[in-house]
Amino acid sequence: MAGRRRGAAAPTGTLRFVLGDQLTRRVSSLVDLDAGCDVVLMVEVRDEATYVRHHKQKIAFLFAAMRHFAAELEAEGVAVDYVRLTDAGNTGSFTGELERAVARHRPERVVVTEPGEWRVWEMMQDWRETLAVPVEIRADNRFLCPREDFAQWAEGRHHLRMETFYRGMRRRTGLLMDGGEPAGGRWNYDPENRKRLPRGHRPPDRIGFQPDSVTRAVIALVEAEFGDHFGDLTGFSWPVTRADALAALRHFLADALPTFGDYQDAMKTGAPFLYHALLSPALNAGLLTAEEVCRAAERAYRDGAAPLHCVEGFIRQILGWREYVRGLYWARMPGYRDTNALGAGRDLPWFYWSGETALNCVAQVVAETRAHAYAHHIQRLMVTGNFALVAGLDPAQVEEWYLIVFADAYEWVELPNVHGMVLWADGGVMGSKPYAASGAYIDRMSDYCASCAYDVKVKAGPDACPFNYLYWNFLIENEDRLAGNQRMAMPYRTLRGLGDRRRAEIRRDAAAFLDALEARPGADQRGDQTDRVT
């Protein structure tokens, strides 16, 4: 039973502080653990649940996974000092609980693995100064590219392109390599991975995990303590143990990976998961490791169980994007989050929380995010993200929303993806151009538009899809910043050919819509758009 504490009668050898997203026995802080004299410290603290108002399922997932991991350590004979959220004397912070644990156990030293977020890294530097015992901070060995290696690769580069990094990681790890060449003769199979779901296509049923008594107790705790946070706990079914995470991986490899690549960019009403892995919460919390997941996917290709384009697309998300954004985060922090290359500053609309908008695509994604603490990468990039970009929403507010609502969100992965990829707020450090699009892209890759109050085929007026005129308005507003970008040459040529009357119509439609946006409950996003050029 998690919660057993080693008594303070005799000094402890090493106090090993394991954070809630480091739940693997092979994490660097535990690799040399001596069960005879060491103590593992784990804590549930209010500060970490509320520094942003995390989705209720994210809090429940982490607390449940922590309690199960602590129990597994105890079953191994390891002494675990586990502090629960409602324990008497809980200070509510990492620092306060570490200080109390040092006083209880009188260790010779504290060992901890480096954190995923800058704010916790700064805390750890303070621990070295304020605690009465030495604090050893170890590199996070769960990643395939150490922070120092990425920093060396990035040194002197203004533009940090993922594709270049990814190819280096393929060579470094040997994943999907045949000698010195990429498997199949190509590095990237992205063109094969952009198919729309055929009409009537039924995706596979996805595995879920019924909460056990430990998880049910955590769900009740979260509802009682954080009931006013965003999200719904009713359908909680995330894997919260190593065994369940491995079962989820096996299910994905057998039932979804063989078709994952084809439809990884597709979206469908009422099908939030499609062929996606759903492994990122377990992966980011330590229940799975990046290497074992990539190796398992490669074995599926080598064994003939999944085609190369599907496996390469999946491995690229982990070996490429995941490792890349983590490296970029640490190489460019803390100043990275403060840039705002496009000068965006509009408040986040209330419908990002309520889902109450006539934009069916946004309403669908927000509703699914509330229900599952999940949306797949195209929903994040090309629906909620695309709207944030073309509407000129304030980067800090958008980034906080993404950090709050997803079960897999930590600043190291959320900030570069949103700041650089979604919003282009870094001015091109990550991406060569903004990922702005009209309603045509969403219509091509989903069935959302068929049930929308707006008409994606209409370009102007109150019935037009707002993405259509917001896209062109975005180009107009950022013409001075973006017209010289070679990858934006084609849309700007088209814009220049529209003429003054059409440009004025775009500006008026966009202003009417954007002026009607509200950052509070009860807003009507349709607005009055009758004053336009005809």
Structure overview:
It holds the Pfam family DPRP. It contains 22 helices and 7 strands. It is mostly helical. A 5-stranded parallel β-sheet has the order 3-2-1-4-5, with helices on both faces. Strands 6-7 form a two-stranded antiparallel ribbon. A hairpin with a 2-residue loop joins strand 6 and strand 7. Helix 2 runs antiparallel to helix 7, helix 11 runs antiparallel to helix 12 and helix 14 packs across helix 15. It is globular. The N and C termini lie far apart (71 Å). The relative contact order is 0.10.
Quaternary structure: single chain
SS-derived structural category: mainly alpha
Number of strands: 7
- Roughly what fraction of the amino acids lie in strands? 5-15%
Q: How would you spell out the order of helices and strands?
A: EEHHEHEHEHHEEHHHHHHHHHHHHHHHH
Termini separation: 71 Å
The tally of helices reads 22
**Widest sheet: strand order?**
3-2-1-4-5
Main sheet record: 5 strands, parallel
Pfam families: DPRP (PF04244)
Organism: Methylobacterium oryzae
InterPro entries: Crypto/Photolyase_FAD-like_sf, PhrB-like, Rossmann-like_a/b/a_fold, UV-DNA_repair_photolyase
Protein name: Cryptochrome/photolyase family protein
